[in-house]
Amino acid sequence: MPTRTPGDDRIALLQGTLDLLILKILVLGARHGQGIARSIQQLSEEVFFVDHGSLYLALQRLEDQGWIGAKWGVSENNRKARFYSLTAKGRSQLLRKTSQWRRLARAIGLILGPEEREG
Q1: pLDDT at 1 over 60
Q2: Which of 29, 54, 56, 81 could anchor a disulfide with 75, C-beta 3.0 to 4.6 Å?
Q3: What's the pTM value of the predicted model, to 2 decimals?
């Protein structure tokens, strides 16, 4: 992943948010760490940048909780990599966390009010 530059408009992810996004990406199928980070960055239209240190700590945490599983395989560039997949427990957690996130986002939206237009 590229490093951040001054004036970069990317937004750092909070721990719980990163966990949720990882679970959501894995609904699409098994991915290795770099693939997960790339998917988050691309699907957020380059707004989110996932630091590798944070990513691998989150993957370990999710694996320890039984929400994801991991198996060794070979990546598209022919390198050995761990591929992560969502477990049934992780799928259930994803539904719960998605519901919580939507409630939180709605509540924040209510407080912030409608977006003001310039002009």
Answers
A1: no
A2: 81
A3: 0.83
